[in-house]
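S1.2 Input.
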Amino acid sequence: MRDDVSRLFDDARGRLAGLPREALGEIREPGRVRAVLGAGPRMTRVGDAWRVGALLIGDTEVLEADEVLRAQDPGRRGYAAESARRRAELRALALRGGFAAGETVNLGWRAIDLPAVAAGGSDGPLTWDGDRAMIRWAASGALMPLASYLAERIDLLRDPPGGA
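S1.3 Output.
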């Protein structure tokens, strides 16, 4: 029997109900008028989703996760790497964009085309192996059955190990 991708995610949403979600943010460039006035890019809240490993599961969509950060004031620091400076700027941009201090914000996420996957195709980390939907949970990771992955990750969210 072939996995039903929509049913797997509907079941996941039912199991995730009541668990905390993470914010979805987008960086938006200013319009022409605001740019002339010196406004720079801003980070905007565009929704929220449950983080389930490499996936972000919203009420109706499933997203491929990318960059995650916490909104915070970067303070005054020297940076040994340009990447550290960029991350600090993004954390400050999130704070100025109205995200609460310490709030987790996901950026760079991308919607997964579930109908294409359900039809036997691939999109992002999701693909098929025979009759099973599979996920590649890390860029260099092996494929894992999606049903098992969702069950394992949701169990960890519902009952995290001590110290987590």
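S1.4 Remarks. The mean pLDDT is 89.
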